[in-house]
Each structure stands twice: as C-alpha cells, then as structure tokens.
Design a protein that fits this description.
Residues 5-61, 62-112 form the HTH myb-type domain. Pfam families: Myb_DNA-binding. InterPro entries: Homeodomain-like_sf (IPR009057), Myb_dom (IPR017930), Myb_TF_plants (IPR015495), SANT/Myb (IPR001005). Keywords: Activator, DNA-binding, Nucleus, Repeat, Transcription, Transcription regulation. This protein has helices spanning 15-28, 36-40, 46-57, 68-81, 85-91, 97-107, 111-115, 127-138. It has 140 residues and is an all-alpha fold. Mean pLDDT is 78; it is low at 1-5 and 111-131. The structure holds a DNA duplex (21 and 21 nucleotides).
Length: 140
DNA sequence: AAACACGGCAACCGCTACCCT
DNA sequence: CAGGGTAGCGGTTGCCGTGTT
C-alpha cells in the first residue's frame, strides 16, 4: 500500500490497524509510543499511533456535536487560555485537543484556516469573521 | 445528472519541553 | 552539566461528503 520513503505507512487508518493498536494498548497500556508500532506489529510511526489512540480509539472519547454547555465552556476557556488546545480539552471531558481545535477552526476562526485555499470567499476584514468573533466573545 | 464549491474531520509535520544517561 | 532521545503540542494540509448551481 502507500508508504513513505522509510517504509512506514501514512494516511488513513484501516480497521485492522485500529484493532492491532487497541489490542496493544490494552495489553501494555499507554506510553512508550515509539515501542507501540513494534509491539502492535504496525508499520506506522509512534507519533501516528499516539495520535490515532488519543483522537479516535480512546474509550472515553465522546463523538458528535458539541453541546451548548461545551461550546460555552470552550469559548470561556479559549478566552482564558488562548490556543492551548490540550489544556482546553482537559477541561472538556471526552473531547480531544484535535477535536477542540478542529471545532474552533471550523466554527469560530471563520476565514483563518480556509483563507489559504479560498481567499476569494472572504477577506481578512470580512464582516463574517468579525461577527463570528463578536459572537464568540459576547457569550462570555 | 454532472460539475463545482464548501465544510468538516482525520492525519501529518515541525518545534519545544521533558526525561534519562 | 551536557547531549541525545522521546513525548506532547499546535499549526497546517489533504481528503471526502454534502450542498448548490
């Protein structure tokens, strides 16, 4: 399948890889991520295994839409902590840093992440962006 | 019905901090 | 105390699904 120059797989994880990783974590526990690919028999780098576990496979992860309470908390924490996603995620049970970051980038940073691709859709001074920002701050 | 544009999510990359020798 | 290696974090990118024209 696809692989990088050093022979490690990249891209989307398969169900088989998920199973192997989950089994490995069950058996050995979290940590020693550089050893996980060897233990699990995965052709992935340790960083990738950690990311997959943290963002997707952890049993405590809550998936789906953010509740209004969670959004409210997210906004307050972001105001307080800035882009410290891991800290914010730590205060939101069941949410991961990547989750929180993606949600923020999608719903509150409006033009920032997509501007590179679709500059024509809105400018830096776009009223959409400012209204989003106002919305995100006014709730505080 | 097909093509195009946009939104959302999963994953990768590079940098920094921390720990061990 | 210094150096090397590993873990963790944040930013960015690419892909896929959905909506619109």
């Amino acid at each position: 399948m696809e692989s990088s120059s050093n022979g490690l797989r990249k891209g989307t994880w398969t169900a088989e890889e998920d199973i192997l990783l989950r089994k490995c974590i069950d058996k050995y526990g979290e940590g020693k991520w550089h050893q996980v690919p060897l233990r699990a028999g995965l052709n992935r780098c340790g960083k990738g295994c950690r990311l997959r576990w943290l963002n997707y496979l952890q049993p405590s992860i809550k998936r789906g839409n953010f509740s209004s309470d969670e959004v409210d908390l997210l906004l307050r924490l972001h105001k307080l902590l800035g882009n410290r996603w891991s800290l914010i995620a730590g205060r939101l049970p069941g949410r991961t840093a990547n989750d929180v970051k993606n949600y923020w980038n999608t719903h509150f940073s409006c033009c920032k992440s997509k501007a590179r691709k679709r500059e024509s859709t809105c400018s830096a001074n776009s009223p959409i962006q400012s209204s989003c920002y106002k919305a995100s701050t006014s709730i505080l």
